[in-house]
Amino acid sequence: MKKHGLKHYFLWLSLIAALSVGLPLRAARAADAAGADTPVVVGGKNFTEQLILSSITAQYLDALGYRTVLKNGLGSTLMRAAQVSGQLDVVWEYTGTSLILYNHVNDRLDAAATYARVKTLDAARGLVWLDESAINNTYAIALPRATAGDMRTLSDLAARIRRDAPKTRHLIAMDAEFAGRSDGLRPLLKQYGIALRRRDIKQMDPGLVYTALKNGQVMAGVVYTTDGRVQGFGLQLLEDDEHYFPAYRATPVVRQATLDAHPALAAQLNALAAKLDTPTMTALNARVDIDQQSIARVAHDFLRKQQLISQ
Q1: Which residues constitute the signal peptide according to the record (predicted)?
Q2: pTM of the model
Q3: Is pLDDT at 27 greater than 60 in this prediction?
Q4: Residue 202: how many CA atoms within 13 Å on its side-chain side?
Q5: Which residues pair with 43 in a beta bridge?
Q6: CATH class of 35-136+247-305
Q7: Cα separations (Å) of 38 from 18, 25, 127, 253, 258?
């Protein structure tokens, strides 16, 4: 080796040695706050609630000292495949979605049994379900508050329809998926003893259901319980008093390998989940969908209000 080549060679070795000393020190500092100095990739789906939850999580972990990468705007099946393959570390998933869509379990289970089942099934895939939040983004039947009167439950609605039929037309709006799926409209009507005629059912885009309810174009509509338009459009959710709709509890799901690399992460995400419930999530969604505020700002304001970040 030439003389100047040897010089550069030893300089390169010195640099590597210096870096090898510095890296453990930096890793130790990161470990004090949030585990090893490796990026945590946070995933999210492509609708408002998921964009907010993933932004909240990324900002929260950043404040704790993690190095995060945010990848949201994904479809459900794509997000799931990305986490199973190791491309995403942390996501917020819904218990009912995992049970029915990913694991193809059609048993009618209560909320606790649904959580226990998906937790067990996904453990075999290296995915860990942490503590459930109190967010339940499931289906519901909604009416405009101005016309709901004394109706508070689905049984109340069923009694009203039976009393008025057949002289009154009761328009109920829903998307085509709910109208056609095996666990959708037909078994719901059967369970509550509701007899609807074809002309009583109005299928439309999911977003238009809220508009139709707001404008009084339909009597009732199938909605999602945490959608911001429920609050923003003054809608009354009817209680599912016979517990027909499955639980869709939003829960942090983390790869086991990620938890092994970041020992404090589980407790930190459980602390975050404990701050979230259906009314809180509905209000956050409304700030984005109704008030047109940015997702990043809404997420940041939530974290500050809950004293999960300092600034």
Answers
A1: 1-30
A2: 0.83
A3: no
A4: 16
A5: 71
A6: alpha beta
A7: 20, 14, 18, 18, 9
